[in-house]
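Internal tracking record. Fields below are filled automatically when a chain is submitted to the structure queue. Please do not edit lines marked as system-generated. If the sequence contains nonstandard residues, flag them in the REMARKS field before resubmitting.
Queue: standard
Priority: normal
Entity type: single polypeptide chain
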Amino acid sequence: MKVGILGGGQLGRMLLQAAANYDITTYVLEKDPLCPAAHLCHHFTKGDIMDYDAVYNFGKQLDALTIEIEAVNVEALEQLEKEGVKVYPTPAAIKIIKNKILQKQFYSEQEIPTSPYYITQHQSDLLQHLDFLPAVHKLAEGGYDGKGVQVINNEAEIELGFNAPAILEKKVKIAKEIALIVAMDAQGKTIIYPPAEMVFDSVYNLLDYQLSPAKLEERILWKAQAMARKVVTGLKSPGLFAIELFIDVNGDVWVNETAPRVHNSGHHTIEANYSSQYDTLLRILLNYPLGNPNEILPSAIVNIIGADGFTGDVYYEGLDEVLKMDNVFVHLYGKLQTKPGRKMGHVTIISNDYLDLTHKANKIKHTLKAITK
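SYSTEM-GENERATED OUTPUT FOLLOWS
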């Protein structure tokens, strides 16, 4: 089979690493020929994944097509789907998820608990909702990796809001933030991965580190799993989806956002689970049986992000020290240039001891840095 990926970042890179286990020919479409995935695919095409002609001409030669980022030309995918190319997730699902207004409306229509919200078209619209603050303003489209999200605590901070279509979402008093990865095949069968608890960097709003399986009360776990499955079955699309959820201080569970693709919160599955998120997506694309999502051992992930004050050719300080640690797996994404806040890699730790996981995660966080010489 000929399988294509729209986007050539680190998610595409890790999907291609898993694809090496199967007898398929891989294709990547991406503007940057030096992107992390370029040298791992069989065929690389330089092009803009937002351009109709580029996506259509790339996809019409393929049997199956997937994405590693939501910002793609959906109209081209719709045409390819009509012509018989297997597009997972479906263009209809991508169209809902890539726009946060449509995504929120989808949760409301499906009666999936999500925090209260208003739709805004201009920054000035925020003045109509002063009694709704504190809230979080999220761009409808274009936000990624913490960008396009702004907390608005009071009237004085309205100037920080976006002057474009957006969602104003009531700020939740979060006790825990978790992610559940759900996969659905073409026959509608689903599997769900154990939950991961996510801890975010307060400066960049990026995942700092995470623990999986998250320690949750059974009733909360069941509720979160039921909600995550309902999101995926409601989308009616084969594929792999990451559902991010809030657990508030009262123990209530709210769906925050959905990603229609492999996700940062599932990186640990490469070493820590029987079937990784990448292997599972490939199984769906190839119409193979779904794998086993259960954990082999508990795990933690530490993101390696570009250190403050460093821009240029990357150098990994502390790499030797981290590589000497037991049960620690380093993944560098092959990005030649670092800059503050850029995702450069991640480290997975596996252990039966949660104290060992958190101890090593904190040690790695303060040891391994992406800097320049």
